[in-house]
Design a protein that fits this description.
Blueprint: H1 12-16, H2 21-34, H3 37-52, H4 58-64, H5 66-70, H6 79-87, E1 92-97, H7 106-123, E2 131-134, H8 142-154, H9 159-168, H10 172-195, E3 198-201, H11 206-223, E4 230-235, H12 241-255, E5 259-264, H13 269-279, H14 289-305, E6 310-315, H15 319-331, E7 341-346, H16 351-359, E8 364-370, H17 373-389, H18 393-410
Length: 413
Amino acid sequence: MENQPSISFDNTQFAFEYKSDEALKKAHFLFSIMGKPWLVKPALWLTPIAIRWKLPFVKPLIRKTIFRQFVGGEALEETASVADKLEEYGVQVILDYGVEGGDDEEEVFDQSCEQFIKVIRYAATQPNIPFMSVKVTGFARTGLLEKLDSMMHAAEGSLMKRFLRSVDELPAGEKVEWHRVRHRMMRICEAAASGNIGVLVDAEETWIQDPVDALTILMMDTFNKDKIVVYNTTQHYRHDRLQFLKDSYEAARERNFILGAKLVRGAYMEKERKRALEKGYPSPIQPDKESCDRDFNEAVKFCIDHLDRIAVIVASHNEYSNLYTTQLLQQKGLPLFHPRVHFSQLLGMSDNITFNLAHAGCSVSKYLPFGPIEDVIPYLMRRAQENTSVSGQTGRELGLIRKELTRRKSAGK
């Protein structure tokens, strides 16, 4: 298409236009702290303990620092002000209720399911919230998922054949338990379909991922016939996910549904490698970053080449991958604001990508988690850890913030 806008992720005016000088300085301070591993690593260990012990100073400190940067609020209603501010700059929102996995009572899982449905119903009333995110471990026992995954790995055949056979072989009590999980997922997807909200199913650790994938594909087969309701997440730091994406596309083609694909690099790398080493099985993680980047970008291209059957969310903080997606669209003469192509970054990170994409006319969102501090601590600890361990991430954030502060000072702001 002619006259396509050029996109630069170095434009800090667009990137931070929504932030006041005070907010920008606070972000600078936080990323400066997060760039010091000697300080962050002890905090990663001590913070969850301090929360469990209910030390009085901990929550206020978290609330004023890392929570404010990466989380939309403690209650659903508190996310409204963040969503409204983002909407002013053409950025949408993916709501995420910050509940993580465990082995809780059925009553707790039912409550989580109701909370997910509440989020969907709220999102359906908001013009700027097209998606919400769910973790199956929020309403399913981790031990049950792990058992099913193990059984599936011991079986032969396609993913769905192994899944159905494994469910059928569960003991009677666990079979009933699994049907409750499926019923919760069905209720969530029904509410989403009714409210025209997309459900993004988060990826989990490899040892519980197979039943999550199978359940998600079943939901897509039910709800993604005429529109896109359900999206699965593929973590491409795993060496098998590009092939899994292609297999999922074949399943969508055979079963005549639209594949919803959210592409990420991944969130559990260190944990995955450690477990593989301890238990003596081959690591599921790519051998190096170059392999991960290659598979991610190949996944992007595969999705753009098959938009007749795929709706893709490029959920990445990698500048090249986002730019590459826009280039593929332009090469095909497709609009940047394509109904089946969406971009997303986490709240508090990579504003230079999000807001420059929005300024160019792309469909883009911020991933907006919310929940009580004790519930979102695992999420916050991952943000702190990745900003310490990901090469160049914190330095890039700091460099852009400093550039914008200098620009504002020169402009007399």
